[in-house]
Amino acid sequence: MSSFYNAAVPKRLRGAMKDVYFSDLWARAKRAGLAAGNAITPRPMVVGTPTTPFGNDIDMTKPQYYISEGLCGFAWVNIKPGNSRFANWLKRHGHARSDSYYGGVTIWISEHGQSYERKVKHAGVLAAVLREGGIEAHAADRLD
Prior knowledge:
Layout: H1 3-8, H2 14-39, E1 45-47, E2 65-67, E3 73-79, H3 85-92, E4 97-98, E5 105-108, H4 116-132, E6 137-143
Antiparallel strand pairs: 1-2, 3-5, 3-6, 4-5
Helix pairs in contact: 2-4
């Protein structure tokens, strides 16, 4: 929890106010991440058949496909510890799930179709806003 939160909210109200604080923090992080993902222009790619089995060129006599959203992949944000009040709030509201591989809880970025670059940007900004709010959050990604 940020020091601002602890200083601004009287101790007797902190328990009741945490849900309001968490809800506001989540809304700000989600909004900022979505805007960041939508704001970038992914580098498009062309997919086709190579001229040789391990070639790095495209046989122009065969079909080619233009992918405007670029590479396909996944991104997520991991929150630790997984039993913190914020992690439990995320799970209770359906925003995250327990992660037995990385530990903690994971927020999957499901927006932006399969666009790897948009998802990575979204996850990075979402994690940064959560860190500003005093939450241990780290973005991660993987190409498909």
